[in-house]
Design goal:
This protein is α+β, with helices and mostly antiparallel strands and 458 residues long. 29% of the residues lie in helices and 12% in strands. Residues 169-443 form the Protein kinase domain.
Length: 458
C-alpha cells in the first residue's frame, strides 16, 4: 500500500510486536463514557479500535478546546399538521472515475481466482448532486414554514390520521428503531406507503434535540442515496418524522443473513458506491458548511427493491465547522465499533470521522462480519490489524465473506480492502475524503467488470 496510514501500521507493528498483546488484553472491556447509553451505543469491543489508541502518537497530545456552531435545540413554534420543505437544486455529477486504483504487487494473493458471472452488475442511476455553491444553509429551521413537496406531494396529516396509517402504532407495523425513536410502516388513505419515526412520553425530552436536528437536516437535503423527508408532526408530547418507505430492509439485516439470497459481490460494490455518493453529497453540501452524519453503519443503510442503498437516520448528524474552522468541538455520539478514535479522544468532529466509519462499513460489506463480536474468540475477530496482516501474507481470499458463492479475482479484492484500511487509518489526516473514495470505488468496479468480461459500463 502506498499511503501513510498503512505505512504507519507496518512500522509500528514491526517496532512494537507487543501491540497486539496489549490489544488483546483490552478486549472485552466496556465503554465508561457517560454519553454511551444502552439505547444508542452497544458494548465496546476494544479489539476493533484499541490498536488505534495504542498505535497513534497523536493520542499523546493534550486536548485543546475549540468552539463550534451548534444547531438550535428547540424550535420556535409547533403545528398540528405535517409540513415539508422544498429547495431548488441544479444537477452536478461527481467527476468520472480516474484509472482504477490497483494494488501494490506485494499484496497480490498467492492464488487469485476469477469466475465469469451470468448476472450483470446493477446499473447505477444518475448521481444528481445539489450544487454546493447554490445552497445557502438556513440559520434556523422554522416549523412554521409550510412549503410544498414537488417530488411526492405535500403531506398534511394530523395525529389521528398518522395513528390510523400505523394501525394505532401496532407492534405488527414496527419495522425498526433509530436514534430518534421507533420506526413504523404506515399506509396512507391514498395508498402511499411511508415510514414514521415516533418519540413519546419519557423519551420526549431526551429526543428533543435529535428531532429538531433530523428535521432541520432532512429538510435541506435532496439526493437519491439519502432518505427523503415527506413531513413531520410536532404537537404536545408527540413528535413524528415521516419519510419515504424503503422496502428491502437494512444492510444490517442482509449481512446478518435475514434475507435470501445472500448479497452477491456485484451488489456489495454497488451498495458501497451508493453510500459513498450519499456521504459525498453531505460533505459537500455547501461552500461554507458540511453535514456530518456521525452514525454511518449497516443498520442506517436502507435498500430499495432494486437493491440501491439510501443513507438514513440523521438523529446524530450535525453541521460541520464553518469556513473559518476546520473542526467542531462536540460531545461524542455514534455507535461503538464505528466511532473515529481521534474523535473519541479529542471530541473534535470533522467529515473524516464519517470516512473512518465508512472504512469499517466497507470491511463489513466485504467480510460479512461485525466490528464488535464479543462472543467470538480473540483470534477469530475481525480487526484492522488482522486484515492488514492477511493482506501482507497474500491471503486476501481468507478475508471474504464465505457465503458469497462467486469466486472473485484477488486483483479486485486487494484494492477494495486497501481502500477500507485507508479510510480507517488511525490518524484522520491519513484518510481520504469521500469524493476520492467514490472515484476509487468506481475504479474497482470498472476493473471488476473488465475481469469478468462484462466491459466497463456502469
Amino acid at each position: 500500500m502506498n499511503f501513510e496510514g498503512c505505512k504507519f501500521w507496518r512500522e509500528k507493528l514491526e517496532e512494537n510486536p507487543q501491540i497486539k498483546e496489549r490489544s488483546e488484553e483490552k478486549e472485552g472491556r466496556t465503554a465508561h463514557n457517560p454519553e454511551f447509553t444502552v439505547e444508542n451505543i452497544s458494548m465496546v469491543e476494544h479489539g476493533m479500535f484499541s490498536s488505534c489508541f495504542s498505535l497513534c502518537s497523536c493520542f499523546l497530545r493534550e486536548r485543546k478546546s475549540t468552539h463550534g456552531t451548534v444547531l438550535p435545540k428547540d424550535v420556535s413554534s409547533r403545528m398540528d399538521s405535517v409540513s415539508s420543505s422544498e429547495v431548488n437544486f441544479s444537477s452536478e455529477r461527481i467527476p468520472p472515475s480516474p484509472a482504477p486504483v490497483m494494488a501494490s504487487p506485494r499484496y497480490t494473493p498467492h492464488t487469485p481466482r476469477s469466475t465469469h458471472f451470468s448476472e450483470r452488475v446493477p446499473p447505477s442511476p444518475a448521481r444528481a448532486m445539489a450544487s454546493p455553491r447554490n445552497i445557502s444553509p438556513s440559520p434556523k429551521f422554522s416549523m412554521a414554514q409550510v412549503p410544498k413537496l414537488t417530488r411526492l406531494g405535500s403531506l398534511h396529516l394530523n395525529f389521528s390520521q398518522v395513528a390510523q396509517a400505523t394501525q394505532n402504532f401496532s407492534p405488527s407495523m414496527r419495522i425498526g428503531r433509530g436514534a430518534f425513536g421507533v420506526v413504523y410502516k404506515g399506509y396512507l388513505e391514498d395508498g402511499q406507503v411511508v415510514a414514521i419515526k415516533r418519540a413519546k412520553g419519557d423519551h420526549f425530552m431526551d429526543h428533543n434535540a435529535q428531532f429538531s436536528r433530523e428535521v432541520e437536516l432532512l429538510s435541506k437535503i435532496d439526493h437519491q442515496n439519502l432518505v427523503k423527508l415527506l413531513g413531520f408532526l410536532d404537537k404536545g408530547d408527540e413528535r413524528l418524522i415521516i419519510t419515504e418507505y424503503v422496502p428491502n430492509g437494512t444492510l444490517r439485516s442482509h449481512l446478518d443473513g435475514d434475507h435470501y439470497p445472500i448479497l452477491n459481490f456485484s451488489q456489495r460494490i454497488a451498495i458501497a458506491i451508493d453510500v459513498a455518493h450519499g456521504l459525498t453529497y453531505l460533505h459537500t453540501y455547501s461552500a461554507e458548511r458540511q453535514i456530518i452524519h456521525r452514525d454511518v453503519k449497516p443498520s442506517n443503510i436502507l435498500l430499495t427493491e432494486n437493491m440501491r442503498a439510501k443513507v438514513a437516520d440523521f438523529g446524530f448528524a450535525r453541521l460541520g465547522a464553518d469556513s473559518e474552522q476546520s473542526q467542531v468541538h462536540t460531545a461524542v455520539k455514534g455507535t461503538v465499533g464505528y466511532l473515529d478514535p481521534e474523535y473519541m479522544r479529542t471530541h473534535r468532529l470533522t467529515a473524516k470521522s464519517d470516512v473512518y466509519s465508512f472504512g469499517i462499513l466497507l470491511l463489513e460489506i466485504l467480510t460479512g462480519r461485525r466490528p464488535v463480536e464479543l462472543k467470538r474468540p480473540t483470534n477469530e475477530r475481525v480487526t484492522l490489524i488482522w486484515v492488514f496482516e492477511k493482506l501482507e501474507e497474500g491471503n486476501v481470499l481468507e478475508l471474504v465473506d464465505p457465503r458469497i458463492e462467486e469466486a472473485v479475482d484477488g486483483e479486485v479484492l486487494v484494492p477494495f480492502f486497501e481502500l477500507a484500511i485507508h479510510c480507517a487509518a488511525p490518524v484522520r489526516a491519513d484518510r481520504p475524503d469521500m469524493k476520492s473514495v467514490v472515484e476509487r470505488l468506481w475504479g474497482i468496479r470498472v476493473e471488476y467488470n473488465r475481469r469478468q468480461g462484462r466491459g466497463s459500463r456502469a
